[in-house]
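Q: Got a minute? One more chain.
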Amino acid sequence: MKKIAAYITIIIVSLQIAAGVLIGIAVGKSDDEMIAATNMWMLLNATQWVFAFSVIGLLTTGLFRQLTIVVVLLWIGKLIDEIWFDPTVLSWNDILNFAIGENIAIIMITAYLTKKHIYAKSRS
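A: Always. Here it is, folded:
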């Protein structure tokens, strides 16, 4: 797992460098080129967050890992928003993504607490 996390970290750093170079090249250009560079930077940024929380999920255990998976799913929704929808406007896909993530988190927390309660009850 740690080897995979190291590779993903290298990908994150590479994406960050690419995003910085992209913005650096676009500085001083026309407004359309600046907007295109900013849109690409936002796409790379969302991709980096998906990878970053994936690394955290790989290196943690228990409930924290489960909640990290929920955060990864939410950032995948943000990535989808960057690719197919207008990311500057709150739309139905954002609300649906948040509702799904919230429900998954509630289910995971409830399952974890129930499992912990049943285990504690069986020990006494």
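A: The chain is about 90% helix and 0% strand.
Q: Perfect, thanks.
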